[in-house]
């Protein structure tokens, strides 16, 4: 089998494996968060309405974010859409992390309840740390994908 792989000039290297692992981990995270919001619709709605932004924005997030997260999850698994999926994951994580940063710096005057799902057990500081790790992974993935695309041309 290895001979056929090398014959096709497909040589797995560290960057390829890193990109695959990053995309799989991000895909799993976005699939989990999107699907968990759908499965706990009432809990998600209650958590969003407890946040500091207006109700109309909570409604936009409630109906728009879960399908967007699932779509990003699928994009990360398809080579043709992977670069865009990586960028969307970086944008989403930047927004999520920025929001947590604003909560922690007291911009809103109160600290709303935390997110649901597995991250529900994390405090705001731990959530910030988790998001920063995921954000760095996404940025690293964008860089790896861009480098991979340049080397193919």
List the helices and strands and how they pair.
Blueprint: H1 2-7, H2 14-39, H3 41-49, H4 55-75, H5 82-104, H6 124-152
Helix pairs in contact: 2-4, 2-6, 3-4, 4-5, 5-6
Summarize the entry for a quick read:
The protein is mainly alpha-helical. The protein contains 6 helices and no strands.
Distance between the termini: 26 Å
Strand content bin = under 5%
The coarse silhouette is globular
Give unreliable regions as ranges: 1-8
Q: Helicity, in percent?
A: over 70%
Q: State the total count of DSSP E strands.
A: 0
The whole-number mean of residue pLDDT values reads 87
Output the structural class: mainly alpha
**Structure annotation, total helices:** 6
Spatial extent as radius of gyration: 18 Å
Number of domains: 1
Tell me what you see in this structure.
- The chain crosses the membrane at residues 12-35, 55-77, 84-108, 128-144.
- This is Methylamine utilisation protein MauE domain-containing protein.
- This protein is mostly helical.
- 75% of the residues lie in helices and 0% in strands.
- The protein has helices spanning 2-7, 14-39, 41-49, 55-75, 82-104, 124-152.
- It starts with a helix and ends with a helix.
